[in-house]
Every structure is written in structure tokens, then in C-alpha cells.
Design a protein that fits this description.
With 79 residues, the protein is an alpha+beta fold. The chain has one domain: Glutaredoxin (3-Layer(aba) Sandwich). It has two helices and four strands, in the order βαβββα. Strands 2-1-3-4 form a four-stranded mixed β-sheet, covered by helices on one side. β3 and β4 form a beta hairpin. The longest helix is centred in the first third of the chain and has 21 residues. The radius of gyration is 11 Å and the shape is globular. The structure holds FE2/S2 (inorganic) cluster. FE2/S2 (inorganic) cluster binds next to α1. The site of FE2/S2 (inorganic) cluster (FES) has 12 residues, from α1. This is Thioredoxin-like [2Fe-2S] ferredoxin. InterPro entries: Thioredoxin-like_sf (IPR036249).
């Protein structure tokens, strides 16, 4: 199945690591050609209450999105 990933590039999420995350996901995208779509989006409005960084994966909002957490969720979708 295709993994559609929206990475929040709002100020808060960017400061909390989403720029790094984007680079990691671009590497992952090379390993799974045609299976991962990455889109950088504006603030998803979930950044209050220490929930940043935020990523949306196939419509599901994932808060406190560490690279490990996101990559393992993406792998479940694409494998
Ligand atoms: S900056 Fe990412 S949810 Fe607001």
C-alpha cells in the first residue's frame, strides 16, 4: 500500500526535528520506490501541549513523531 506522509513544516515542528525527519524519509523513499509520497505542509494545528513534531500518515495524525516511530509505521504500510 502507498504511504502518504505529510510532514508539518510549521515553526514548532521544524524546531522539534521535522527537517531531519524529512531527510530520513527521503532516504527511505529511495529504498521503496513508488511506495512513499512525502509532502511538506503548513502547521497541522496539533503543536500545542508538547505534541510537536507532528506528521500525518494516510490520514492518521501522529504526534511526538520521532524518526523511529514514523519509519516503523511507514514500513508497516509499505511492506
Ligand atoms: S507547527 Fe506542526 S502542528 Fe503546528
Amino acid at each position: 500500500m502507498l504511504a502518504k506522509v505529510k510532514i508539518c513544516m510549521g515553526t514548532h515542528c521544524t524546531m522539534m526535528g521535522n527537517l531531519n525527519l524529512q531527510e530520513n524519509l527521503e532516504d527511505l523513499q529511495l529504498e521503496y520506490p513508488g511506495k512513499i509520497e512525502i509532502e511538506a505542509v503548513k502547521c497541522l494545528k496539533f503543536c500545542e501541549d508538547n505534541k510537536a513534531p507532528v506528521v500525518e500518515l494516510n490520514g492518521k495524525i501522529i504526534t511526538n513523531a520521532s524518526a523511529e516511530k514514523i519509519i516503523s509505521e511507514i514500513l508497516e504500510v509499505v511492506r
